[in-house]
Specification:
By secondary structure, the protein is mostly helical. About 70% of the residues lie in helices and about 0% in strands. It contains 8 helices and no strands. It is globular.
Length: about 260
């Protein structure tokens, strides 16, 4: 008996996601350094030796090499297989949630973009404009060609989320007498709004703030961070957006049932 078509497609998506995750590793390493993401071919950042194709198989090569470069034996960060595995699982998960639909494509791509942005933000506290531009193009394209939301809903989502964070940044700067939020976070929120629309954008703002507050206050309480010290806010915006965009309607329905019992 042959394998079910959806299982075969899930397997294919897993390998596609792992391959895209491998490319994403190149992007998040090279973009902050101002290097081309296409040339030269993959190479060890320590010894600069080219990585052979058989040493560049997503996830598997890292395991077979014992997490070390074949040439110089320098340790290879666990981030590489983690990113590859994360994108692979994300693709399959979104397919299982939405099936082969525009929503699947929307959130599969958004998740990859937000993972790239989050890694770069954590490393450098900067958000690359090139990723945001690519994301804006995808967000508008999905709205224009897809059936999950209209172009008007997409544009108002971008305006609502970007505009709200811009207002928060202005108020924070007035109160704290210094920059409270980077402009990259504002541009990121605008891009996200194009994917999730204005209703979920409002919920995403709420969740982003909650996640950042919980993690930030916990880090301060544990002595891992000082109050007022800048930190990467992009990952929290990303997490809030994904939770809201994917499960927002379920969360709102559950809240309304609880509130009006």
């Amino acid at each position: 008996m042959g394998m079910e078509p959806h299982i075969l497609f899930s397997v294919w998506l897993f390998f596609l996601g792992a391959a895209l995750g491998s490319f994403l590793n190149v992007v998040v390493y090279r973009l902050p350094r101002g290097e081309s993401i296409f040339r030269p071919a993959s190479h060890c950042p320590n010894c600069d030796k080219p990585v052979k194709p058989y040493d560049n198989i997503p996830i598997l090569s890292w395991l077979l090499l014992g997490a070390k470069c074949r040439n110089c034996k320098e340790p290879i960060s666990m981030r590489y297989p983690f990113v590859e595995l994360a994108v692979a699982i994300w693709f399959v998960w979104m397919f299982r949630l939405f099936g082969l639909s525009w929503e699947f494509a929307n959130f599969a791509i958004l998740g990859v973009l937000l993972l790239a942005v989050s890694i770069v933000d954590i490393d450098t506290q900067l958000i690359p404009d090139s990723v945001l531009i690519v994301g804006a193009v995808f967000g508008l394209a999905f709205a224009f060609y897809g059936d999950a939301m209209t172009v008007a809903e997409s544009l108002t989502g971008g305006a609502a989320m970007g505009g709200t964070f811009f207002l928060i940044a202005l108020i924070g700067e007035k109160l704290m007498k210094k920059e409270s939020m980077g402009f990259g976070d504002i541009k990121l929120s605008l891009m996200i709004g194009l994917f999730i629309g204005w209703k979920m954008a409002i919920l995403a703002i709420f969740f982003s703030s909650i996640f950042a507050s919980v993690v930030g206050l916990t880090a301060i309480a544990l002595g891992k961070m000082k109050f007022g010290k800048p930190f990467a806010f992009g990952p929290f915006i990303a997490l809030g957006a994904l939770v809201s965009g994917i499960w927002g309607n379920l969360i709102l329905d559950a809240y309304l049932r609880w509130a009006f019992v």
